[in-house]
Amino acid sequence: MVQKYQSPVRVYKYPFELVMAAYEKRFPTCPEIPVFLGSEILQESKSDDGAVHIVERSCKLNVDAPRLLKKIAGVEYVFFIQKNTVNWKERTLLIEAHNETFSNRVVVLETCSYSVHPENEEWTCFEQSASLDIKSFFGFESTVEKIAMKQYTANIKRGKEVIEHYLKELISQGITFIPRWTPPPSPHPNCNQNVSHGLLGMLSSPSWTKASCCFLPSPADKLDADYIERYLGQLTPMQESCLIRLRQWLQEMHKGKIPKDEHILRFLRARDFNIDKAREMLCQSLTWRKQYQVDYILQTWRPPALLEEYYTGGWHYQDKDGRPLYILLLGQMDTKGLVKALGEESLLRHVLSINEEGQKRCEENTNLFGRPITSWTCLVDLEGLNMRHLWRPGVKALLRIIEVVEDNYPETLGRLLIVRAPRVFPVLWTLVSPFINENTRQKFLIYSGNNYQGPGGLVDYLDKDVIPDFLGGECVCNVPEGGLVPKSLYQTDEEPENSDHIRLWTETIYHSANVLKGAPHEIVVEILEGESVITWDFDILKGDVVFCLFHSKRAPETSRKEATSSSASTAGDNVQLIDKSWVLGVDYSRMESPLVCREGESIQGSHVTRWPGFYVLQWKMHSSLPCSGTSLPRVDDVLASLQVSSHKCKLMYYFEVLASKDFRNYDLMLAAHSKQTRLSLACGSSFDSIQCAINCSLNCLPTHYIQPQRAYHALPP
């Protein structure tokens, strides 16, 4: 497996020329980097005007590997070829390196660049990327990979420290400014290179001034190292790399909007920074958020009066670490009464709104306290907990809510303080704990009786002036006291819920459908006037499908898949409209070219109708074309065929018909007769694609979970 690394943008607070002077001090040897034993120039060249200077070196490195491994490999040191191309005119340095030792067994590639900060030419940006591919190494591939990654990550931070060390050394010598390159006054192809245009000439210049020490954020669409430390916390080099790579992937797939950085980071932490697993989990969550319009919950959800009166929870200042504090009097809550009076749906919506509010408060506290606050603390008081709380439907509802929160709000709980746990608590804990992630369980602190008082108790985590009065503190807490919900408020006419899944947002505008082999899913749109606009937005949740749009003057008749005993459970919502006896070009016409849609992709598009009649949107299972005698199937098709279900595809779709007069303001759509856009997600469907301009009825982008790709991450003054 190829290991990759991508650094954030690191900003040096000095001009490019001064940074280059510090960089050159690393050669030919650098005592500040012990593994770097020395270098030798292989070849060197300059442009006629001295603006471009290319140096190729052979670098000797010491590898901290077991003696036995070195003996088996037959080498004591490893050699790398490094090519540096500095352009004094453009003020850039490109560093390209690859290994010379064991190049047939191990491939190491590294690219670094220094460039002028885009917003201030007196500062310098640095970026670094690398890849490691161990093809074979005497059976020690895994060991060599671990050693290489360990040493590389250890030297990443050291490299920045070395540059800063030599910058300070230059300043201590009185060198705080180096003039920029200027073209020679009388260039001649045969004249000697003017040394003053090179680094040595610049060092000899008598013009010195003090270097600048201000900070501006990183180049567009990139994360700055200082921004990460300020708003996201201390990350290891590999953790930074995982965040940047996953963020870049989302930028490519979402084409203009991505989840917030702290949101991406939570999913990486939940999967121990395994990019593939984090991406899969994140994509599934983004699909869930889109389908159920969770981004709007703080604007649209208004808890019923009954819930505000009997739901015993609320926000209460923050803990000692600055985390928002939520207090839940679970022992005083009539969970059975709430479920019977409001239903599971309302409780879940309320819990989701609490989680959304929690993330909003974390952002506010991050700005308030000047340090990253990415999670909150929950204080649960179990005084009054009894067997009534073990009501099976209530426990079932609790487990469903926990499952939804675990899947979509990972790493948002910083600490859970459980106080006054009664004897019945172990029973509830036994039922609930298997559904809680191990990382989350480690954040639980449980106190029985009065153990929460005194040292080692709440005072270790909460300031005394924040501890609620009912727990012996001095702070008045405004959390509702709860009580039994009157049975007169129970929803007696509601049928018992038999579904195994929470029917969150049953009024969702999206529909789900299955596409079976030989049985496409089709929907019909009747157009009464010639110029209307059909818009669609769909996500491929499973399998690969082909999307087409047809037109017919005849009204198709609905038919469903004849489900055999083996496929009866999978047929689901599968509707066929185009009769098998119909002839393409005679009974109906194709209005859009077939579009192959891969699993995980989100498609938005529109079609301006020319004639009235019946338009059929069709999704059918995609199967790769067999290779001809002169061509082979593409690798992507082969891989897709291996990964995708061979008997069923699943999609989630939405469509709308608009009058052309209502659509004219959308120049993007009227500029072309038909348009398709892809937002590809490899593991799940797209995030918030419904917010595209084509859906004029839903033209407001969410503001809490979605942010535009920032050009810069500026620190507050």
From TrEMBL:
Domain CRAL-TRIO: start-end pairs: 303-479
Any single Gene Ontology cellular-component annotation: cytoplasm
Alphabetical list of Pfam families matching this protein: CRAL_TRIO, CRAL_TRIO_N, PRELI
All residue ranges annotated as the PRELI/MSF1 domain in the record: 3-175
Residue ranges of every copy of the GOLD domain listed in the record: 506-657
Matches recorded under PANTHER family: SEC14 RELATED PROTEIN, SEC14-LIKE PROTEIN 5
Protein name: SEC14 like lipid binding 5
